[in-house]
Specification:
Number of helices: 1
Order of helices and strands: HEEEEEEEE
Helix content: 25-40%
Strand content: 15-25%
Distance between the termini: 27 Å
Radius of gyration: 23 Å
Largest sheet: 3 strands, antiparallel
Length: about 140
């Protein structure tokens, strides 16, 4: 976990701006904190997507952001790890031997697996649990 703390003494700015500054400084600080947090989230998504070789839209929900408010100038960005289906990685395709994928930028053939659409249009990479047709397990 990465912890980033930015501290600033805004009392100097309040003194310089006088009564007018006390009204506007909290809003400006809130906007600055939220902009920095949003840009950090974008940079983290881009970096993780590049390392994992996956489109950014597939990890979008893995970075929830709690924005700062006027009375609470704290913003929190978390990274939540969840299992990602093999079909979502870039370059995943069906071969005679199985499914080829470049998950985490490592090319590999998953022997005995196949890509199909099941249920109400869900597309995925599957492997049989035994010799019978069913049950199948999604990778």
């Amino acid at each position: 976990m990465i912890d980033l703390n930015i501290r600033s003494d805004i009392r100097k700015a309040e003194r310089r701006l006088g009564e007018h500054g006390k009204k506007h400084i909290p809003k400006a600080a809130q906007m600055a904190i939220n902009r920095a947090a949003t840009k950090t989230r974008t940079a983290a998504r881009r970096r993780v997507a590049k390392v994992m070789n996956i489109p950014q839209k597939r990890i979008k929900d893995s970075f929830p952001l709690k924005k700062a408010k006027r009375n609470s100038l704290i913003s929190t960005l978390r990274g939540i790890g969840r299992p990602i289906k093999l079909i979502y990685f870039n370059g995943t395709r069906q071969l005679k031997k199985g499914v080829k994928s470049a998950a985490y930028n490592v090319k590999r053939v998953y022997k005995g697996t196949f890509i199909t659409t099941v249920g109400a249009g869900h597309k995925g990479a599957f492997k049989r649990k035994g010799d019978a047709r069913l049950p199948i397990k999604e990778l």
